[in-house]
Amino acid sequence: TPSFAEKLGLGRVALPDEIAAWNHDIGPQGQGLPMGSGSVEDGEMIFSENCASCHGEFAEGVDNWPKLAGGDGTLADKDPLKTVGSYWPYLSTVYDYVRRSMPFGAAQTMSDDDVYAITAYILYSNYLVDDDFVLTNENFMDVEMPNADGFIIDDRPETELTIFTEANACYENCKETVEVTKRAAVLDVTPQEEGAEAEPEAAPVEQAAADAPVEAAP
Amino acid sequence: MSDTPTHDGPTKGPNRRAFLRGAAATGVGLAATAKATAQDTPDPLITEMQDWASSTGEGVDASPYGMPIQFEGDVVRRNVPWLTADVISSINFTPIHALDGTITPQGCAFERHHSGAIELKKEDYRLMINGLVDRPLVFSYADLERFPRENRTYFLECAANTGMEWAGAQLNGSQFTHGMIHNMEYSGISLRTLLEEAGLDAAGDLADKWVYVEGADASSNGRSIPMEKALDDVLVAFKANGEALRMEHGYPVRLVVPGWEGNMWVKWLRRIEVTDHPIESREETSKYTDTLADGTSRKWTWIMDAKSVVTSPSPQMPITHGKGPLVITGLAWSGRGAISGVDVSIDGGKTWQKARLAKEGEKMALTRFYLDINWDGSEMFLQSRAHDDTGYVQPTKAQLREVRGENSVYHNNCIQTWWVKENGESENVEVSS
């Protein structure tokens, strides 16, 4: 164990009410879940009033706003759809994030029971529970998340650091030919500086594979 | 007060790209301009008295806190509207193409918010430490200024930097492909010092403990950090590049997590909790997890690997001076240690030569490199390849795709190629491997 320095006596002891007001995180095994419950039926109404304008009546997403349902079985596809149902490993994260940070622009305005109900409705939208389901702090951990086993801990030390090394760095005659295979100018999605116009493209090269811009920073 | 020139966006005047197009249209091939030629007629900027050499400039009271001169109005943050659903949970980009050295001016250092940049004054600021500590504590901002201080320079790179380029060559400019990064000199307190103030005896064996950190904003941006890192080099910072943090960078207090993905550098830091488990929050499950080709996903990919990019020439920095001496310059960095060298290729990776580092690489900080060449006016495929002091060498995109596929979203540290054409313009391309 490390040896610790002398304390400086700065700060003051946090009071229980203060810790209770800020300490809301919920662990993957349900650590920190509040007492409460909410039904799919109530969740549908609450979701419709507070969430559907961005996420859709069925959690399917509106425009570019996040889709919360769907995408089951698409993770190995060319364009995976990653939602609560198809991707998220833990239900605790849904409750934690919704209670702490949603609705967008009016976060931390919903009761614990409301959040249980919304969580139940998101599960229902992902066909993970029936329409008469009631989610409580007691049965919370019984819900099975489809992609719970879909994650591995960073394995770059084994899969990459052994390959991307000095020993494999080439300096001379590293390749025979250099051909352009993708061009950003063909895609032409870069914001232009004011006054600049789109440049005509003449050179016949292969169309960039990225048909549509990817959402990089959702 | 006099009429201080200010700018609130790009200059309206001609830009380099438009200039180049005009030149090409009239058949004046810039690349054809040979080496320095004799001047036939005297230069009126020398022979005629200029106003600034006769009258006076601005007084010292003109701008108590100055902005860059108006002619640098294009050295600004830019955003790419189609990347995100709105501008509140979004990203913008540092104009790295136009900068030199390594320190990023705070005013154009990129922003990434999940619920916008909040205004939190020092008087309202509170930092809580709770969980498995001997005494849960609350600090005011003034308390923090009384702890022993450290001063370190580190890069912050968004995990999604270059993320749009996984499937192809999309955005034309190093600002857009590599500009989710900044590099600042931070002053603050080691997180270890704060944790020791609360006391870690209650935590028992620290090997399997975590700290959960969250911000004061609506998104909270909560992330779990293993105790080993928390006790190593993480800072709770309140100054950057000599002055207070900018609002958009977490004023008054943010976390600095050297070498690790930018998402973990929690801004407007309000709480640090010692736990016996990772929280597996939204920002480490739904986001900042990296999906591989088989549909499984890596989590806890904290470290940013060695990476580099040529910032000039580049698509936003065309060569306008013709043949002859050309400065190729760029940035290199590694989250695993210090940059030990940078190689540059002008032929798309057929051959490589060693660039010159402006100064010795520092751990987990940006390093500037230069390669001075005599450009013969022919097209080039410019690439740079970073080495760090762990022996790691920056891979090609093909090498990364071989391991990960194209849907990782994050952690794209591939070698970038700029196709420099005979007219001096550059384009973001991929080339055969």
Structural summary, described in words:
The complex is a heterodimer of chains A (218) and B (433). Chain A has 218 residues and is an alpha+beta fold. Helices cover 25% and strands 7% of the residues of chain A. Chain A has a two-stranded antiparallel ribbon with strand order 2-3. The C terminus of chain A is likely disordered. Chain B is mostly beta strands. The longest helix of chain B is centred in the N-terminal third of the chain and has 10 residues. Chain B starts with 15 loop residues before the first helix and ends with a strand. The interface between A and B is large, with 97 and 123 residues.
Task: Count all strands of chain A and give the number.
Answer: 5
Gross CATH architecture of the largest domain in chain B:
Alpha-Beta Complex
Distance between the termini of chain A: 40 Å
> Whole-number radius of gyration of chain A?
25 Å
Task: Strand order, main sheet of chain A: write it out.
Answer: 2-3
Q: Main sheet of chain B?
A: 5 strands, mixed
Protein name (chain B): Sulfur oxidation molybdopterin C protein
Keywords (chain B): Metal-binding, Molybdenum, Oxidoreductase
InterPro entries (chain B): Ig_E-set (IPR014756), MoCF_OxRdtse_dimer (IPR005066), Mopterin_OxRdtase_euk (IPR008335), OxRdtase_Mopterin-bd_dom (IPR000572), OxRdtase_Mopterin-bd_sf (IPR036374), Sulfite_DH_SoxC (IPR030835), TAT_signal (IPR006311)
GO molecular function (chain B): heme binding; molybdenum ion binding; molybdopterin cofactor binding; sulfite oxidase activity
